[in-house]
Design a protein that fits this description.
Layout (H helix, E strand, L loop, with lengths): L1 H40 L6 H24 L2 H23 L3 E4 L9 H19 L5 E9 L2 E9 L8 H12 L4 E7 L2 E9 L2
Parallel strand pairs: 1-2
Antiparallel strand pairs: 2-3, 3-5, 4-5
Helix pairs in contact: 1-2, 1-5, 3-4, 4-5
Length: 200
Amino acid sequence: MDADLAAHLDAVETLRGEQARQLHGELGGLLTAARMILATLDTTPDQGPLARIDSQLAEALAIKQRIVEALRPGMLDHFGPGSALVSYFETNCQSAGVPFHCDAPFGLPFPAPTAGIVLYRIGESVLALALRDSPSAVRLKVSSDAGQYRVVIGAEAVPAARSNAPFLGVLARWIARHGGSLEGRMEGTSLVVEAAVPLR
């Protein structure tokens, strides 16, 4: 069953990537073209109904971009999973009012693309798991050593009573399908999750 779930997670990621490409390429192209045509019709760009239409098209493009980023963050391909995770953690920790500390040097080599997206999704999942317990702080460390791209996530002052083992076990089997590993443990009152995938 766990192997089936891991395979399902891979299929979901493939679908997300395809949907992101379609939204970006097709819908984004149509909306941009509509704005360009509108610009040629409007002699007074700051007034009138055409300006309102242009504003609504700009808003639609912004919504499209947010959906594309949720499906497949562009930072993954351009800057790697570490930078994408830092951005995601900063945004979500700030929204939750939880202090965030990170150690993520710029310029690390990238893991293989599929392994990178799996690592990113695991980071998203672990952060959601941590934030549900209102930690006093969240830490993220990204490093590269011995042919591995490694991410360590720590959530401080979380209750130890709740067992995260089944959830982390599913994530461990998913990352293992891509040559990686995941370990979750309690260190005092901190939940620590360490995940690694091979470099390209």
